Amino acid sequence: MDGSRQRLKDKKKIVVKIGSSSLHHPETGKLDLRKMEVLVRQLCDLKNRGKDVILVSSGAIMVGKNALGIKKRLEDVNEKQACASVGQARLMSIYQKLFSEYNQICSQVLLTKNTMLDDLNRYNAVKTFRELLEFGVVPIVNENDTIATYEIDSMSVFGDNDRLSAVVAALVNADLLILMSDIDGLYTDDPHQTDDAVFIDCVEHLDRELMQMGKSSTGSSVGTGGMATKLSAADIAISSGCDMVIANGNDFHNIGRICDGEKVGTLFLADRKDEFYVLNKLEHMV
Ligand code: GLU
Fold first, then answer.
1. What is the pTM (predicted TM-score) of this model?
2. CATH label of the domain that carries residue 27
């Protein structure tokens, strides 16, 4: 086992991001409760190991759509917002139930790009996260979809919360971000399209050539994130001094394995510490 992987065992503050596509049954589009139980158990175990844990979870629109019995694909932004409003409350009540089984308190934090750009809002968010972590709470973060239209449009600013999770990691000064995706990690090409795609275990420097490898789709019909937004998230995370791992969300046991130093997913090594880089990136996201 190499040194970079071994060092993941010592991470203290961990942000875990789960996309909608990792939370649902593909056949029905409904929540996969068994997987959610594994997810929550993994996170509670990290807490028991003395880590601070922040969960960034999508799924509000998907859960709301199911609750309202909508079968068609959602196109209208206001429809998506209504679904998010219903779904976010439901999602949180399920998370609260699951976390309480392990006597773990969780909380809800809803963010938007604008609140992150506003100095006072951002300062308040930083202080609130700090308090929550001091209380031993697991904050559960999502975009505030009901008020931020551009974020759930097809050109999502945070891209299925990939970039949001990286911004959160920078905000709370996390030392590890784990992105659970519908792909094993970074390949040299799209493995859904070609057999020649080679898996990349570790990225030491995220250069322009690697950024080009990001494709806009991962083949999932749920969620808005592709490899491009994941690489953009990696850029933000590593620039704020945080290692990042992209791993397959088909098995949430991968979270514990990554924190045990096992070779799971693609590891992006923290590169440089630049507090203005993230803000600058955020400002220029469209
Ligand atoms: N914030 C959105 C939600 O929770 C993300 C939608 C998506 O998965 O792309 O539903």
1. 0.92
2. 3.40.1160.10
